[in-house]
From TrEMBL:
It comes from Streptomyces virginiae. PANTHER family: COCE_NOND FAMILY, PUTATIVE (AFU_ORTHOLOGUE AFUA_7G00600)-RELATED (PTHR43056:SF10), PEPTIDASE S9 PROLYL OLIGOPEPTIDASE (PTHR43056). It comes from the Bacteria. The keyword Hydrolase applies. Pfam families: Peptidase_S15 (PF02129), PepX_C (PF08530). Keywords: Hydrolase. Residues 291-516 form the Xaa-Pro dipeptidyl-peptidase C-terminal domain. InterPro entries: AB_hydrolase_fold, CocE/Ser_esterase, Galactose-bd-like_sf, Xaa-Pro-like_dom, Xaa-Pro_dipept_C, Xaa-Pro_dipeptidyl-ppase/CocE. This is Peptidase S15.
Amino acid sequence: MIIRTEFPYRTTHEDVRIPLPDGVELYARIWRPVTEEPVPALLEYLPYRLTDWTAPRDWQRHPWYAGHGYASVRVDVRGHGCSGGLPGDEYDARELADGVAVVEWLAAQEWCTGSVGMFGISWGGFNSLQIAALAPEPLKAVVTVCSTDDRYDNDVHYMGGSVLAVDMHAWAATMLAFASRPPDPLYAGDGWRAQWLDRLEAVEPLIHTWLSHQTRDAYWRHGSVCEDYGAIGAAVLAVGGWHDPYRDTVLRLVENLPSARVRGLIGPWSHQYPDRGLPPGPAIGFLQETLRWWDHWLKGADNGVMDEPPLRAWISDAHPPATVYEELPGRWVGEKAWPSPTVIPVPYVFQGAPVAVASPQHTGLDAGRFFPFGNDADLPPDQREEDAKSACFEFPVGGGEPVEILGRPSVTLRLRLDVPYGQVVARLCDVAPDGSSTLVTRGALNLSARQGRDRAVPWPVGSYEDVTFELNGIGHAFPPGHRIRLAVSSAYWPWIWPRSGSEAGWTLDPAGSSVTLPVRSASPAGEGGIVFEPPEQAPPLGVSFPATLDEPRPERLVVRDVARGTWRLEVDPRYGGTRVYPDGLEYAEDASEVYEIQDGDPLSARTRSQWRIRLHRPDSGWEARVETSSEIRCDEGGFLTSNEVVCREGDEVVFHRTWERRLPRAAG
């Protein structure tokens, strides 16, 4: 990592409050170049607290952009951080309207040329696309990283029409804790306590809403830009990583937006900005790459950025299974169009007699983390144990050339169910000569969603039907001597929440079943010219991380109770721990997640999460604590959720509330 200290412009920064039409003010931090000339503005718009939680990351990039001639602006969403107003649902109409107002306010400032860009990762990447679809006139360009165009079928709530237990629960619990954090009196002023209490009265666990919409209805269509790609008028640079669950959005955006104003970039990365150097690498000079985008679309520079291939993607070489890789072997390729004429769908047809598949309920414990962040236990380990609980079909890679794939594989399965509900999970693995099995990609389908994600249709008991669904996109080369394995299971806990009766599994008839791979032809002549500068950032903020005497908990620990027949996955998400900021704030957080299931009983599935957050300013004596507890269980008829929030100022409990809900299971 290059830490850059000299820039074309000297910079300054200030904290301001941006007024909204209804009188609420949003808290913002603006870095600007020292110049008399107006400059374009760049906006990153998040609920994650610019004064502390994202401050280290913000200081890596916002001053860097300012040093290159942009006003770079970080704004907290309404009801979060030191912004006014009350917290709402993610990406609700109010949040997006506020974002449009911020874009227009920035464009109207005397120091702004009137041209605005938006960027962000995850939440900030989502609302960049969503606000671009509302088409405020000043918004000319977007850089969206690790985001989605489809809030139902490619987000943290549902996968293939099934409840995504691992992140539906974890993210709802996280946002309950985050929304309960207080404003910081150093920045919010004397009214911080009243503001905090007002917010707490408005907090509602988001799990109530998410589990109330189990099919792709109007709730999920809101904010899903795939509903109308034509509404996006801004130029879009879409960025993702093959180890991020949102990477397929890049492929869809490049396919559906006009080629004159979209470019896609997919690396080997996890759910991180590509310059941060977190596993898996290699990292790239992402800030420099985005600067080219901004200079072209906001300053009119003829710098060749649109001469790049519409899609640049990393294709990984074969690698042994591991839960972390500092760097993956492979290379960059470019596609002159997407879908690409160099990528041909090739079917691999299953062979053999019909096979009954009733996977143990704990199949999936080796799935890895749904959102890899670059931690040591994020990625799936050797898949041989999972493969043993699945029906496997193999295809040897012969000849002297690898089978190179780029895009989304698909499977067609001929299934018979003796119950009305079930799930199917397909995993594509690279099996080495030593027998080790590396997960390449996967997909899932709730069989009641086989006719569309907007409806739930029970299976006709005792009948065969053919179902087809896609796996997540990937770039991978299977070398000669390896085997391509397609493993199919009827369970995948804790990713997929099982339904009563699904333990019976189903019968798969290989006749009429196949996997279709997006096989990329031999590399075009002259390929290899895709290069990136090394990563660089602005000087770090200077946050310190005090050492503790406590032994760290394992990131992912599997516990089996042999007598009870239960399996428990204990997760430490490692979001940040304890840190001390240069302004004196001590911020500590600790989170834990537990996923439990009993063999043979899908109704035993249970998730639990606990959060503890402490904010402390020793110089003033201010201390605030947030503790939350969340749980989801299920029975024959629905989901049972419980949530609790306890907030303290010093030793005084200022807020305590519990919620108990029963939500009927209509689909999922």
